[in-house]
Recover the amino acids of this structure.
DNA sequence: GACTTATTTCGATAATTTCGGAATTATCGA
DNA sequence: TCGATAATTCCGAAATTATCGAAATAAGTC
């Protein structure tokens, strides 16, 4: 991951509602959630939620898939892990335990609902 | 770590110069760097760098210590790890490999230059 | 004390981000 | 095709954040 992408991901996450949304999705796992479920949980006006989702999307922190009238959103674990790795890169002059971060993977890639 | 602190850390890191500064410090290890060294590396006017450092300080992402005329700044690895842990908390409904993050520790706490 | 270097605070201007109502697009079922 | 539901785009006022010169503070040297 290069700096630009990391910055985009970090600014995306540096907002109350977006951080909450992302964490909900991370905890929801590979099944993700619909925009509507998210909207209800976070209690935001639709336009506001969409604006936030667009920022998370642009940062590639979430994925989208339309399922009929509903849009299903999922956390992008690869991008999340890439961000964590970026932050800790070459940590401590390489002298200490600084393995490349490997934290969370979606169970089987492409798992559906 | 609670949400408020995580948010503060994320916004602190979501800026070009601050991210660069923090990563320099992470890579510098427990020895840290002086504000002056940082200023030269990042090529920023003193007032601007101080403003950024104040934000990283408020977020507890860095520590300070005055050494004579110089101020030595160090990355706060505990806070960094807490942030990573916060982001991945309860990842994937606990179904997959989601161990609490443990990424980087300062070699011996309190090591001085 | 006078001088030098290191860093911070102040404060004013400039740039960016946030919010959300209203209008719009997409999909489905009848 | 019509009506309902889901989600998005548009856009501009309000709030927040960034930038940095100039003045101030801190510490060391002579």
């Amino acid at each position: 991951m290069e700096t630009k992408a990391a910055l985009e991901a970090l600014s995306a996450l540096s907002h109350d509602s977006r951080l909450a949304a992302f964490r909900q999705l991370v905890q929801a796992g590979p099944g993700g959630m619909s925009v509507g479920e998210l909207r209800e949980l976070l209690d935001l006006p639709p336009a506001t939620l969409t604006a936030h989702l667009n920022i998370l999307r642009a940062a590639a922190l979430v994925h989208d898939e339309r399922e009929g009238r509903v849009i299903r959103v999922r956390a992008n674990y690869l991008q999340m892990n890439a961000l964590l790795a970026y932050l800790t890169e070459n940590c401590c002059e390489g002298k200490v335990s600084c393995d490349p971060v490997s934290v969370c993977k979606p169970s089987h890639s492409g798992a559906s609902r």
Q: What stands out?
A: The domain at 3-99 of chain A is CATH 1.10.10.10 (Arc Repressor Mutant, subunit A).
